[in-house]
Amino acid sequence: MSVHIAFCDDEESVLMLYRLMFSEEVNSNILKLSLFSKGADLLIELERDHSIVAIISDINMPEMDGFELLGKVSSKYPDLIKYICSAYEREDFKNKAEALRIKHYFSKPIDMDFMKEKIQNDLLAIGEKVKFFI
Question: What is the pLDDT, as a whole number, of residue 104?
Answer without folding.
Answer: 95
